[in-house]
C-alpha cells in the first residue's frame, strides 16, 4: 500500500494508527501539506467537512 485516501464527513480531528509502522506519514489536502501530530505510531490531523485527504508514506519517522 503506497497511499490512502480519507474523506472527512463532518470535519474534526482524524486519529489513526500508522499503516506504515516504522515510517512517518505525510498528509495533503488538494496537494497542500497538512500539519500532522504523532505520539509513537498514533497520528492525528485536523480535517474540514467534505474535504479529501491523501496519506503518503514518509521516510521520516
Structure description:
The chain has 61 residues and is mostly beta strands. The chain has one domain (3-58). Helix content is 0%, strand content 56%. The protein is built from no helices and seven strands. A hairpin with a 2-residue loop joins strand 3 (24-29) and strand 4 (32-34). The mean pLDDT is 93.
Strands in their spatial order, largest beta sheet: 1-7-3-4
Instruction: Characterize the main sheet.
Output: 4 strands, antiparallel
Count up the domains: 1
Overall pLDDT: 93
Structural class: mainly beta
**Percent helix range:** under 10%
N-to-C SSE series?
A: EEEEEEE
Secondary structure blueprint with pairings:
Blueprint: E1 3-7, E2 13-17, E3 24-29, E4 32-34, E5 37-39, E6 42-46, E7 52-58
Antiparallel strand pairs: 1-7, 2-6, 3-4, 3-7, 5-6
Short synopsis of the structure:
This protein is an all-beta fold and 61 residues long.
State the main characteristics.
single chain; 61 residues; mainly beta; 4-stranded antiparallel β-sheet; 3-stranded antiparallel β-sheet; 7 strands; globular
